[in-house]
């Protein structure tokens, strides 16, 4: 069950970031599950392309000092077996994960072996970030519920729901994933596009995810990308 929690958030990030100047306005809300507005999640202003190199991306990664009290660094989840490359959502799994890998980096943190777990993925996809963001947003909206498998045969039944969240870049998509295995689990997921850079944040574990922490960590991630650009 712990592996389901730790794997699902970073896995969605990998699907988005391997498939295929932000306005920080508190008045705009992120796009989310079930949103229908054509303007949801989109910024009216774009001032930079944010085409970071590897050194800049590495410098922009979150560190343990950016985390709330009690978190430590954790080994990043890497893709391995077949089940680890599948989320359980058919529309997401159908995305071509070999396109536009570009410059990328990741970081992971935990408060304990049972969570909460926070992960960050950053990827620079020149002239492809917008397309891949849109593909992800379209795919995630088709997966109201799905079964996410593990290597040990454990199945976590996830349902996706809308999450109220600010738009922190050119576009932001946020959602809440709730699952049931041995214990109830919950994950907040936020994807922010700043020009040609995509930032993926997941936060959660056993019980309920703290969305205030999700927002503060995502804001910090966006701030660091902007500073590094």
Q: What characterizes the major β-sheet?
A: 9 strands, mixed
Total domain modules: 1
Under the CATH scheme, the architecture is 3-Layer(aba) Sandwich
Query: How large is the radius of gyration?
Result: 16 Å
Helical percent range? 25-40%
- How much of the sequence is in beta strands? 25-35%
Spell out the helices and strands N to C. Answer: HEHEHEEHEEEEEH
Shape: globular
The CATH homology group name: PknH-like extracellular domain
SS elements, strand count:
9
Low-confidence stretches: 20-26, 78-83
CATH topology: Protein Transport Mog1p, Chain A
Overall residue-averaged pLDDT value: 83
Q: Give the number of helices.
A: 5
Summarize the structure.
The protein has five helices and nine strands. With 229 residues, it is an alpha+beta fold.
Question: Your description of this structure?
Answer:
It is a single chain. This protein is an alpha+beta fold and 229 residues long. The protein has one domain: PknH-like extracellular domain (Protein Transport Mog1p, Chain A, 3-Layer(aba) Sandwich), CATH 3.40.1000.70. 25% of the residues lie in helices and 28% in strands. It has five helices and nine strands. Strands 1, 2, 3, 4, 5, 6, 7, 8 and 9 form a nine-stranded mixed β-sheet that branches. A hairpin with an 8-residue loop joins strand 6 and strand 7. The longest helix is centred in the last third of the chain and has 18 residues. It is globular and about 45 Å long.
């Amino acid at each position: 069950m712990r592996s389901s929690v730790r794997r699902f958030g970073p896995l969605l990030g990998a699907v988005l970031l391997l498939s295929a100047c932000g306005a920080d306005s508190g008045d705009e809300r992120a796009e989310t599950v079930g949103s229908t507005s054509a303007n949801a999640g989109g910024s009216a202003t774009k001032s930079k392309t944010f085409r970071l190199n590897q050194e800049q991306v590495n410098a922009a990664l979150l560190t343990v000092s950016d985390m709330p009290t009690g978190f430590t660094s954790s080994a990043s989840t890497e893709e391995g077996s077949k089940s680890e490359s599948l989320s359980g959502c058919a529309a997401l799994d159908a995305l071509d994960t070999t396109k536009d890998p570009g410059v990328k980096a990741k970081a992971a943190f935990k408060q304990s072996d049972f969570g909460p777990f926070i992960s960050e993925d950053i990827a620079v996809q020149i002239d492809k970030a917008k397309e891949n963001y849109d593909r992800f947003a379209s795919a995630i909206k088709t997966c109201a519920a799905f079964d996410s498998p593990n290597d040990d045969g454990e199945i976590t039944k996830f349902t996706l729901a809308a999450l109220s969240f600010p738009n922190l870049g050119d576009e932001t998509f946020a959602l809440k994933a709730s699952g049931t295995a041995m214990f109830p689990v919950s994950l907040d997921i936020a994807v922010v596009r700043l020009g040609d850079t995509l930032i993926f944040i997941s936060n959660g574990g056993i019980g309920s995810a703290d969305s205030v922490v999700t927002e503060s960590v995502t804001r910090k991630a966006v701030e660091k990308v902007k500073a590094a650009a």
